[in-house]
Design goal:
The chain has 154 residues and is α+β, with helices and mostly antiparallel strands. It has four helices and five strands. β3 and β4 form a beta hairpin. It starts with a strand and ends in a 24-residue tail after the last helix. 25% of the residues are buried.
């Protein structure tokens, strides 16, 4: 099993080849949706002081093969865009990325981690259960705030 080289995404590459590679990874992993611009999400996460994007690269060729967007509200952490390139699944990269996200949160004093899984994604559910996550008796609700300006991608 190859171990990844994991680091925070370089904010200096917004609009560059690494951002393109990150968006391509999100797309290949099936994480993008028409109503969410991943480039906006990347910029939003990197602009906030309580969030970042961790990327995993294969040390032998520096190929970006995994990611996790991680942040917190001061009490609970959350992860999004947990991705492993489909060609590299089954290598333990998802586990490595989640361990790195947990370490990032723990270093900031955050002791809980929440995540959302689409209801029909049994593969993801099994993955997170194997990592020790369990379902909570909660309802997730959402409301778009019409007066809030959505960030624009460059």
């Amino acid at each position: 099993m190859t171990s990844l080289s994991i680091a925070e995404f370089d904010n200096g590459d917004i609009g560059g080849k690494d951002e393109d590679a990150l968006v391509a990874l999100f797309e290949r992993a099936g994480l993008t949706r028409p109503w969410n611009d991943p480039r906006q999400d990347i910029r939003f996460a990197l602009a906030a002081p309580a969030s970042t994007i961790l990327v995993g690269r294969r040390p032998e060729d520096d190929h970006l093969v995994a990611s996790v967007m991680v942040g917190h509200d001061g009490h609970r952490g959350a992860v999004y865009y947990v991705a492993t390139d489909p060609d590299w699944r089954g290598q333990g990269f998802g586990r490595e990325m989640m361990a790195a996200a947990e370490a990032w949160l723990a270093a900031k004093g955050i002791w809980k981690l929440n995540l959302l899984i689409r209801g029909d994604n049994e593969v993801a559910k099994g993955f997170y259960e194997a990592l020790g996550f369990h379902a909570q008796d909660r309802i997730c609700m959402q409301k778009e705030i019409p007066s809030a300006e959505k960030p624009q991608a460059d």
